[in-house]
Fold these 4 entries.
Entry 1:
Amino acid sequence: MITEDPRHQDIHEYLAEMEDIPGTRVFTAKRARQGYHMNQFAMSLMKDENRARFKADERAYMDEWPLTEDQKLALLARDYNRCLDLGGNVYFLAKLFSTDGLPFAEAVSTMTDMEFPEYRAMMMAGGRSPEGMRSIRANEAAAAAKKEDR
Amino acid sequence: MARITAGVASSHVPLLGVASDFNKDRDDYFGPIFAGYDWTREWEKAEKPDVIILVYNDHASAFDMKIIPTFAIGCGERYKSADEGWGPRAVPDVEGHPDLAWHIAQSLVLDEFDMTIINEMDVDHGLTVPLSMMFGKPDAWPCKVVPLAVNVVTYPPPSGNRCWALGEAVRKAVESFPEDLNVQVWGTGGMSHQLQGPRAGLINKEWDNMFLDGLVGDSDHLRRIPHIEYLRETGSEGIEMVMWLVMRGALGKKTRALHRHYHVPCSNTAIGHMVLRPDNGEGLDMTGSDTVTAIAAE
């Protein structure tokens, strides 16, 4: 367990570290700005009347929002990894999961390389191990060292 | 004088609210999770807290992207259960304690914590699930609640150190409130979980249990864990554990554990739960110790 004094953290170093985690998009200010309207769109699905209008014509409903074409396509395709790349946040995107009637864990599993039954079995068996999943840089360094060994 | 008599930590997975509301809480899947709270439910009946200061985070329910308060305190008379997209949970309204809440808010600002004041809001599973876990399904919640919302969604959230210090300031504020109140502080969220991206489903039992260990006794090393450590070790949503540190900070220098529970999984998440007593010579008796004995004997 690292227990550094976090009181003097440099914001640039801090943000660079956020990008060093495999398979993870930390919801930084940059993503929050990029995805502002996508998340606010998702938030609008908290209201019954909006859900009904969205379900009747998804494209038309999204056209009312200042979303990029990429964002609209990612949302239409329910490509949640792509949504994260375009600034979506999972707590906001969850409004779309529930509009679709999709259980949270099942929606989450679509972002992994597993089908839901396999994902659920992994969770029942104790979840995904953090081994080898902590740092992109560390993984690259380990791979390079291994290559040198050969 | 008001005093903080205990701290409670608990995960707040929304699915636990569903299990409780639809009476699935004793089935094969949820039974082992809820069983770990049986001790606490009996203990709470004996403790009879007047007010819970409930540290939680909103999940795009009361707050959207328009306004992102780092620390917000609810000073309202009452709060309704939020509609999170499938209708509001059928749980009682949450009754606030505006006198205490405003007293804490003012004290915190003088103590250089620049709080956001919330007079009206709905509260989501982050707040209502812990109430269900600790109190079951009553017609009305047995105590008042001061919601204390922490931003752990948009980065950077407050540091663990700042959360701990906020807890210390909350303690000072509570102890200067003239009314004789039995106050608990609850820290909610966590433990390890990741709800997004290809790494979703991450769980780290070893790290979670080190964190639980670190809440007990007089060590304050947990306050110095940087965000990146939570992210790497406990998943992108494991960062919620900084909210437990507000609770821990409010218990003073030393604590002892009365109860501890850990279970994997609940949906995507590791469930952690702990009951702590401040142990700084407050002279708090083992209220609830009969319960401890009774359950130990079972």
Entry 2:
Amino acid sequence: MSNTPPTLVRELPHKHYLNATYGAGLRSWLLTTDHKRIALLYLASVTVFFFIGGVLATMIRIHLLTPGGALVTPETYNKLFTMHGVAMIFFFLIPSIPAVFGNFLIPLMIGAKDLAFPKINLLSWYIYVIGGCFVLYSFGTGGLDTGWTFYTPLSSVYSNSAVTPAVLGIFINGFSSILTGLNFIVTIHTMRAPGMTWFRMPLFVWAHYATSLVMILGTPVVAITLLLAGLERMFHLGFFNPALGGDPILFQHLFWFYSHPAVYIMILPAMGVISEIIPTFARKPIFGYAFIAGSSIAIAVIGFLVWAHHMFVTGESTYAALTFSFLSYLVAIPSAVKVFNWTSTLYKGSISWDPPMIYALGFIGLFVIGGLTGLFLACLGLDIHIHDTYFVVAHFHYIMVGGAVMGYVGGLHFWWPKITGRLYPRSLSRFAAVVLFIGFNLTFFPQFILGYLGMPRRYHTYPPEFQVLNVLSTAGASILALGYLLPMSYLTWSMRYGRVAGPNPWPATGLEWKTDSPPLTENFEVTPVVTWEPYDFKNRPDLGLGTGTPSPAPAHGDD
Amino acid sequence: MTEHIVSPKIYLAIFATLMAGTGITVWAAFQNFGKFNIVIALAIATIKATLVVLYFMHARYSPKRTQLVIVCSVFWLAIMLSLTLADYNTRRHEGRLASATTCYRA
């Protein structure tokens, strides 16, 4: 679909949250309580950790180019994949969408001026930074070689790497997550604008409500568990070490009680992003609103009942394994509800291929593959064969990178005009989305085959017959890296040179699009009153659709 | 929302009860009740924790929604404990499945 070139030259609003006059320079950022500015602080910090994790991943893939390992010693290889996992999971994936987009958008979407506890919001960022510094200290002083799972007694007794500062860093960072979840829940309960009923809320907000429940109920458990492992390491207290009367399997139970639901902390917000993008670019109300909202809560709840499927071969009883296998299958139901509802929304929609939509469609494809291979792993018998192989690595990267990161980058493209007030080059961004999709599949699909053929994860060498697939995977990683560097470049470029977007460039139906881009510090000049149903394009003359007149601000008409 | 004021008498009574609970815990630790040792210790600790939450943390005077949140978190703790124990408590039955799971354990 080609858009007509705009005839209207727009300008940024004179007053917005980025040029608000309180304080000066850096101080106005470091002491801000504006949820939008805090979101940008998070954006900068999670990008730093994404870079660190990305560099480590690149080194892993280069090392695996040859069967004997091309780059580093076996000990260093252990550190590479451990630090990659810790940086990406605890410091990028978990905070990425909630702390960046959740912070920025939840008040805007429900018509509030800020989150319920603005100072606690800023505190959560400082806690994140302090936790991050501990972990970076660990990386810089001997590194970390336990695997991101910190299994005991390796982490609590035998490892010679800098485990203590790392577990302290993750313990501290947990409080950031808890405070963010608490803030979201209270905000959603108490600060909705008049008329914004629960079933008029955007599905992004529902997804974050479910995510916040997981953050609050799960994070304390992993924080304390890692602290216990640290105490065992420092003071030889017997929690998990059999020699001291502890039980190593107990660590795994407690660790996965949080760390499996943590997968839903990563993917639920991404699903929320997709639920916003799909109806916007299909120009249709979302199919099955209540079911998508309910499935978010169902995923959060059922997600807590499946954790021991990570332990099928590590010594748990067969009866428990059978129970957890069955419960793990159940979580596929609400996930499938979402996918079917998104595809039903596309049916007979008026689809436009704008960049966020390409990311969203990519998400659906990759999430389906990641989700279905999760069912393979929940199957007790099959899991014996593929446990701890590259099949598992491929599966969770399809969920976390193919799902969560595609959602994150898609969300970045969708709300970038709202965040910065400017548009980015359309053709280049569509090209980048395709590059990302191809690069991702080339990187991780061969790993399914490698795993099925028996290549274990976390090994620094492999038999020569696996080399072709490993080379393919490394080649894919290079394309994938380009797929990330392109958006970073043109989005940064657009902050200064991009065309001014106007309040609602797509146009979309959410409340966040009814205020300026970038918004005022207070978000809205007058508290909005919501009188329409969610994703309703028909009864919204303000969107300029369906009246025969062109959209007031066709997006990206200039290239 | 008006804040409920708890009288010092109640605080002192709860404090005395907690101290008495501590005394009973110490006394019980020196007795041998067989497999009830842990049950008694945990029961006293649970009662003390409940008193702290109800009175010192004002849960008794909080809105229903706050009380619901507290009950939910206890329920989640129960999920964690019961499903973890589902593993530990069924390991002794493993022998019956041994022949069927030889391959599984191998």
Entry 3:
Amino acid sequence: MTSVAGMRNAERRTRTTEGTKPFDVQRVRADFPILRRQVHGHPLVYLDNAATTQKPQVVLDALTRYYTDINSNVHRGVHNLSELATEAYDGARTKVRRFFNAASDREIVFTRNATEGINLVAFAFIRPTLQPGDEVVISAMEHHSNIVPWQLVCEERGARLRVLPMDDRGELLIDQLDALLTDRTRIVAMSHMSNALGTVNPIDEIVRIAHARGIPVLADGSQAAYHMPVDVQALGVDFYVATGHKLYGPTGIGVLYGREKLLEEMPPFLGGGDMISSVTFEKSTWNALPFKFEAGTPHIEGAIGLGTAIDYITGIGFDAIGAHERDLLEYGTTILESVPTVRLVGTAPRKASILSFVMENVHPHDIGTIVDREGIAIRTGHHCAQPVMDRFCIPATARASLAIYNTRAEIDALGAALRKVHEVFG
Amino acid sequence: MSDLSDLYQEVILDHNRRPRNFRRIDPASHHADGYNPLCGDKLSLTLQVDGGSIADVAFEGSGCAISKASASLMTDAVKGKSVDEARSLFERFHRMVTTPPDLPVEDMGKLSVLAGVREFPVRVKCASLAWHTLKAALDRKAAVSTE
């Protein structure tokens, strides 16, 4: 397994908030109260981070503080609490903007999750002008949330979904991208990192190929955003989506980055309060960016919690996070490959933090149940990426996914539990 | 690990390794496909019903040990039975796997090995998929999903 260093160098930029303290995984673990609990009489070994990550105490405290100190609606009251809540909510947006290095806060729209961000682009950017015969290009490794929204708009308008294939290691065949693009291609939408395989895709290269033909690019950062620094300007993407609950933040809060010029041209996605500047029964006019896309009372504490989570991540720094997670991935690869009949699925040269695997004559669900009794949480199934499973001719995989608080000892525990699985079914 | 060995009893492991009646009846008088979208388990059940009795029954598909063993045990259990008897077995099996683990359940002979699934709520669907598919086939429904 080679590292993702090449990609990281390409994406690295100056960051004033990088952590300065040496990385100590035990100190990090102490920040996450849930890691102290037991499951089935064993210490919890949480290896389902690609589904959602655990939350540090500072994030939990931020949620409590919001409700105990400043709970109020945003952007409407003149009273003190409303001012404080608005300041905290919009302050969180500024943190997100810095985290993704967007040019302006106006380019950061809060959504419920990454899925909603993709839907917003599909319905407000693509659908209004989508013609029969137009094409949307995605990749063979997308999860359902970067497939279904495009299918919905394509089916409605008689447009066509086209798919960039991947090889047996789970690497996209980027060489074939240019040939897939035509003058009917309206957008290229691809994941920055695969949730089922761990593959990290060369978004900057995809952008270069698509932009050469004037085609905009959306990158799905659901998985990438908590493993590596993301600079939307360096990548050159037109849209980037991420979800808060994988960034060690609360559920129900996500982020859509959109290039300001494109967001300006787009009609609203949802209508309601906060997204208007004036309303009469004859006509309403839209609020300025990003509020045009944030109808109704937003997920205020979610945004504040996400801002706190981002402070937490940048306090540790992606240099330390990347080094720690690369070590775990390499160690985990070695340990899993040493278990009889285990075969890794997804072995691209550029991958991060995902160990997807199958075992001979054992269904992943049986693996999941047996390791669960050892207190080990892994995901089993199709990972909301059924076409990926079909591509590898398997019904499902077991998946261990890594985060900042995981340790080599936890990988050892997984290895031992998998040997038990082999004993039961061998 | 005692509860794990309740789930993965030798009979279950054996039926998983060597499923009985693992084939397709063609032509069949009844058939249905069962699908568990959570697991990706797929099961295709075919039956030959003659004069109200199940002359032959077979299944194909992919799934976990519990769903495969349950399908295998079920085909053995309903073969030669009347349709009414099979429906009654469905009801009894369903009651057995959905009764809370601390309460006693009826002895269903060989099928009782699946009572251990009660300790594993998320796996109850795996054990019942074949039975729901059987019911769908007898009711002349083409497909059933456990979600």
Entry 4:
Amino acid sequence: MHSWLNEIFIGLSLTSILLMVALGLAIIYGTMGVINLAHGQFVMIGAYVAWFLQSQFGIGIIVGLPLIFIAGALLGLAVERTIIQRLYTRPLDTILATWGIGIVLEQLVRGLFGSDSRYVARPEFLDGNLILAGVHMSYYRLFIIGFALLTLAVTWFLLFRTEFGTKLRAVIQNKEISECYGVSANRVYAVTFAYGAGLAAIAGALITPMVSVTPTMGTGVVVDAFLVVIVGGVGSIVGTAAAALMIGEATAWLSYLLSETTARILILLGVIVLIRFRPQGLFPDKVRR
Amino acid sequence: MKRRDLLKGVAFAGVAGATGLGGFPGIWTGRNAAWAAGSDIPVGVLFSKTGAVAVVESTLHDACMMAIEEINDNGGINGRKIRPFVEDPASDPATFADRANRLVRRDKVVSIFGSYTSSSRQAVLPVVEGQNNLYWYPTLYEGRECSRNVMYGGAVPNQQQQDFVPWLKEKFGGRFYLLGNNYVYPREENNVARKILKGIGGEVVNEEYVPMGHDSFSSIVSKLRRDKPDVIFCTLVGDSDVAFQREYHNAGLDPKTMPVASLTRSEIEVKAIGGEAAAGHFSSAPYFMGYQSAENKKFVEAYLKKYGQDQVTHFVNEAAYSQVYQFKNAVERIGSGELKPSAIRDAAVGQRFMAPQGEIEIADNLHSYLWPKIGQWQADGQAKVLVDSKSRMAPEPYWAYEGQECTAEGLQKS
């Protein structure tokens, strides 16, 4: 049987989802050192926007992606301008603040839409499976893998090939000196936070056909995303991608060979051992803080 | 009698006489004025409207409140209205215990209707046992409990499985893959399933538990492809059940050869899964929304009218609804006697009530005789009842444990 090929594919599929969620988190942390505990709720908001668009206007997930990104980004922008911005000098307090924001968002959604689990349909043209060399690959999962790679490429392009990216990297390396050169760190922060939130919202929309959409869905998602960011080394895109791949594949293999519960235990143990010996993660960025 | 008390009594008699209540003697004799004859009957309603399990539990609250309103609109019980004291325990067992305590001590309720999860029931248990109050628990659960202060309205494992497992084996084959969330309920149910399978010559090809809320099932699907079981015997709950069934459907597995047979999937989960992905699979429960009976038609119509056409009724909120009526029947039977929780319990035993699922009866062991059914999910999100039990099935909460039996005297060990 081709079960090992199958597991590689499943691992890739898990990787793509982890990557989508973790990327936004990694960028926000890497840039401004804010540990955004509301990230899971941004993911949840994305899922609800997808549900809302589909149930109210009949707009499918994929067509709706730009709108979902914009909605997430606007929300991120609002949160950054009103709250996070005032806390850049107190990084520890941002943990509490973002935790609170997360709770507020969750209750807001519950208040507006109730706590029922919502159903979002998969795009029809992605129904079915591609069976190649005995490997069952659902078209939708293939699409997510492709989309995650695209997001990674766009993010890389944004960081290393645009003027904004140059400014962003300058701010990451040394905020004060960058400001001396006329870079507005505040604006860079705002845009970055919005971008990260937008990515989270897209990730939320893309996972809707596979999970159930509830106000609490973000909490579980964000734990894995944090694992990825910690293993990868905060703020490093390459690290995030590599860590997502490691954790995704390890989850797929261990849960196939052992059981889901054991897999989870072993992975968390692995992460603990890893940060014992490499506290900065696999690919730490060389930044002055 | 002290002068001050006498004055108060006279004043009260005046008020009572003026308003035509006429309940003065009753109030005078009972120190706990709240359940004196002639006044309202205080009950607690303890279902989470916020927190993790609010999705399901709020529908139990709705059904319970609907029954209370119906009874009050029809003149109450023996001319007395039910007065619900509503608390929101926020899906947290410790809060459940705290609110139950408040209901019993401060509001002097004679019964509490509440809980969806076993953990919240177990948190309330010491409170109702310590205060000798009565807790009406509507959910199916894993059995192995025999409190004299809990009225168990839902199915126990033997009621869901005794017909179901042999039926599945006959129809699809005896190789079962047991899949559940990792906590007490799935483990106890699978324990029973193993025992039944052993008796009828079936086998368990794999038994797997995933953490609560787990939502990535691609590896499980690979294992299903590898093991090729005849039946996936499923006790996943909530989000895990939804994610698993969607994954199963995405992977293109076929319910005709490898059906999912669930003990926990109701109309609520199917709504979130999507009818198309759930179609063709099976559930065993005493009640389905699509069950054809006059009582059910009335129940569903009233529920949808009250809470919206997009709502569903299911096997737990049906029980939450019926339990209020069982409470009513018990109180009616007591008549003008003193309304104590223990008296209500004793009056409830043996009571029959024509519930939406059929005529149910409260057993000596405070569990319920129910009508187990096997339903097959259809693309419209409703279950078609394929098999309806021929008789009321007795609840045996210790079915899998030889030498232990739950009776009217509590747990007996031989």
